[in-house]
Amino acid sequence: MHYAELRKAAAELTGPGGQFEIVEADVLGQRLRVYRNAPPSVREFWLSTTAWGDRPYLLYQDERITYAQAHARVNAVAAWLADQGVKPGERVAIAMRNYPEWLLIYWACVSTGIAVVGMNAWWTAEEMDYALKDSRPKVLFADAERLERFQACPDLAGTMQVVGVRIPELPAGVIPWSEVAAHGGAMPQVTIDPDSDACIFYTSGTTGHPKGAQLTHRGCVANLMNLLYAGASSALATERATGVAPPAEPPIPCLLLTTPLFHVTANNCGAYGTTALGGALVLMYKWEAGEALRLIEQHRCTSMSGVPVMSREIINHPDFATRDTSSLLALSGGGAQVPPDLVLKIEEKITTARPTTGYGMTETCGIITSLGGDFFVDRPSSAGPAMPNFAVKCVDDNGNEVPLGEPGELWVKGSSVIKGYINRPDATAQTITDGWLHTGDVARLDEDGFIYIVDRKKDLVIRGGENVSCTEVEACVYRAPGVAECCVFSVPDVRLGEEIAVAVVMKAGESLTAEALIAHCTDHMSKHKVPRYVRFFTDPLPRNASGKFLRRELREQLAGELEGA
Asked: For 465-484, what is each residue's pLDDT tens digit?
């Protein structure tokens, strides 16, 4: 493999005079790695996309919005907000499904220094109430379902202007989207501090109140540069190693956007990266593998971005054999570790597409690592090398760096780390120490700087004093014949402290017994890693809004069954 070429490409691209030259700068009291050639704020990035003119940009059902049309509508929203007295540094909340309006509002806000509060579309009225009181936006843009939940929060009445999006009959006092869109006007002239908030995205925790992470303009732009660098460095290294040059005119990207825009995977990675290249974004109302296959065929999508289980569902779907997926150049998985078997299945099943992944967090405005193509196939259990603007280390429980190759909590430091959590100085101090973000993920580093995620610390099963990686067990279960999806979690055990359990959904027409699955795991893993409890489900396993399995919900369900037994 061409790791030497990758190191040379990285040095060339990030060195003096390189396209992605890295320098150090003082950022909020820290000396951090930054891109010399990065635009100062998201405003400059968005305005640069006027160059894409009449190219299609947002595709939703039978709707088609070009870049030129998008800019006109973004300008109208920005002008309307200015006329309402919303000032730079204040906040606007978006609570809706992945409609085109989501991105139009987003670009209007960030281009005028207004921070976007991305509201989780799956939140209950109680959760929505908390986030709105926590973030205190001046305006809320909401679709019908989210508006109904807002109206169930009487304390919020009169605290903000409310705009209804895609709602035929609006209640009194709610401003119709048509009025905002028809406002017209030019983009207000503002100067934006790179370290001011671009957006507030709430962490997708499954317990307690979520924390509002402050993603800065500098951080969002740095993440975009990371995305572009990842593609450029991998392509350059592969070309030099193989002698095969990329096409002189690469196809214009068309991304099927499958995850919610209120998360960095879809917004900061999918939308930013595709917009920067003048590509089209195909929006889905909700995830369904058969519909995804239809959209890929219809729009000739070049890539699909989502959590790994979505790629697996695509390949396992009955329509996969009959739908045309030859336009796909990449099939990615982020937000969770991609099981190694899935990497190889993507490489095998879709001859035109290469597997890709990105590891990151809300707290890093997007990716920390990126990996794809030959490198991912060669090292399918890796998350890839850290992006150039990050310093990384693995530490023990005392914060001391562990030797190379040894597992420890991954800490990262760089210009795309968040400023902190709004109204939560305690949580900020616990998560960020002297500029180092504690990821909460157990990882190891190899000699090439590639990062291997062992597991999320809280998702380790400690069985009789032995640490067992849920991810490792899941990778083994997926190798069993007929398994469509699985989730490994812990349950309390009197003797060992914790035991290992797995929830399994089988492919249509396939069957497997618990005994057979346990025997399969016994053949491939140490005995202490083999699940004691196996539960089969006919419906898809519960997930949160970002597509991750709800281990806690499954844990509580099985623990209750065991108590009652």
From this structure: 676 878 889 989 999 999 99
CA dihedral 551, 557, 559, 565 (to 10 degrees): -150
Instruction: Give residue 371's pLDDT.
Output: 92
Rounded Cα gap, residues 153 and 317, in angstroms: 41
How many Cα atoms sit within 13 Å of 319 on the Cβ side? 15
Residues 271 and 355 occupy one common structural domain: yes
One-letter-per-residue 3-state SS of 175-234: EEHHHHHCCCCCCCCCCCCCCCEEEEEECCCCCCCCCEEEEEHHHHHHHHHHHHHHHHHH
Q: What span, in angstroms and rounded, lies between the C-alpha atoms of 482 and 478? A: 8
Would you say residue 418 has pLDDT above 60?
A: yes
**238 plus 130 within the same structural domain:** no
The rounded distance, in Å, linking the Cα atoms of 302 and 68 is 22
CA angle at 255 for the pair 250 and 257, rounded to the nearest 5°: 165
In a domain, 207, yes or no: no
Q: Give residue 206's pLDDT.
A: 36
Give residue-wise pLDDT tens across range 307-322: 888 888 899 999 999 9
Which pTM does this prediction carry? 0.86
- Identify whether residues 254 and 358 lie together within a single domain: yes
Residue 207 banded pLDDT, cuts 50, 70, 90: very low
CB 175 within 8 A of CB 164: yes
Distance, CA of 106 to CA of 104 (rounded, Å): 5
Rg (CA), the chain: 23
Whether residues 251 and 149 share a domain: the answer is: no
d(CA 310, CA 288): 9
Amino acid letter, residue 489? F
Tokens 């812990």 appear where? 490
262 plus 357 within the same structural domain: yes
Q: Say whether both 341 and 224 belong to one domain.
A: yes
Which CATH number characterizes residue 348's domain? Answer: 3.40.50.12780
Distance of CA 17 to the CA centre of its chain: 31
| Domain containing residue 437 | 3-39+217-454
Residues forming beta bridges with residue 469, ordered by sequence position: 460
Is the model more confident about 548 or about 231?
Answer: 231
Q: Please count the structural domains in the chain.
A: 3
Q: What are the contacts of 287-293 at 24+ separation with CB within 8 A?
A: 287/258, 287/259, 287/547, 289/313, 289/314, 289/316, 289/317, 289/319, 290/317, 290/318, 290/319, 292/256, 292/258, 293/317, 293/319, 293/320, 293/323, 293/325
What was the pLDDT predicted at 245?
84
pLDDT band at 528 (very low <50, low <70, confident <90, very high): confident
Rounded to whole angstroms, how far apart are CA atoms 325 and 300?
Answer: 8
Q: How many CB atoms lie within 10 A of CB 104?
A: 28
